[in-house]
Specification:
The chain is built from 6 helices and no strands. With 135 residues, the chain is mainly alpha-helical. The chain has a domain at 60-120: NADH:ubiquinone/plastoquinone oxidoreductase, chain 3 (Methane Monooxygenase Hydroxylase, Chain G, domain 1, Up-down Bundle), CATH 1.20.58.1610.
Length: 135
């Protein structure tokens, strides 16, 4: 071991200082050299190339937040598959069956959410001609 414990952190410190210095230099040079000519077009709000319409504080549907939360939930659950895949050979059959159980529980949750209609964004369409047997 080296005499100084913190000597191992010297490369990280140098890297951090270089990153901070380079970032500061780039931002400062951009501010000093860059042209600042505000025009009406530059000062207007930009919304995908279309003129902004309505209030920016409009309400979102609850389904938007539900889908966002479900995405995070299932994304985190999918992250747990990676460490399992790395040590699969050490776990042998026990680990394999445990992961099948885990994936089964995740799929039960996914099918429950799907059946409840949380993932359906559009309005439900009922075709009357199909119910009456007409074609």
């Amino acid at each position: 071991m080296p005499d100084n414990y913190f000597a191992g952190y010297l490369p990280f410190l140098i890297h951090s200082l270089l990153v901070v210095g380079l970032t500061t230099a780039i931002i400062t040079l951009s501010w000093l050299i860059g042209e600042r000519k505000p025009t009406r077009a530059k000062l207007s709000a930009y919304e995908c190339g279309m003129p902004p319409v309505g209030d920016s504080r409009g309400r979102f549907s609850v389904k938007f937040y539900l889908v966002a939360m479900l995405f995070i939930l299932f994304d985190v659950e999918a992250v747990f598959l990676y460490p399992w895949a790395v040590i699969l050979r050490d776990l042998k059959h026990f680990g394999l069956w445990e992961m099948f159980t885990y994936i089964g529980i995740v799929l039960v949750g996914f099918f429950y959410v799907w059946k409840k209609g949380v993932l359906d964004w559009g309005p439900s369409v009922v075709r009357s001609d199909v119910r009456r047997g007409e074609r």
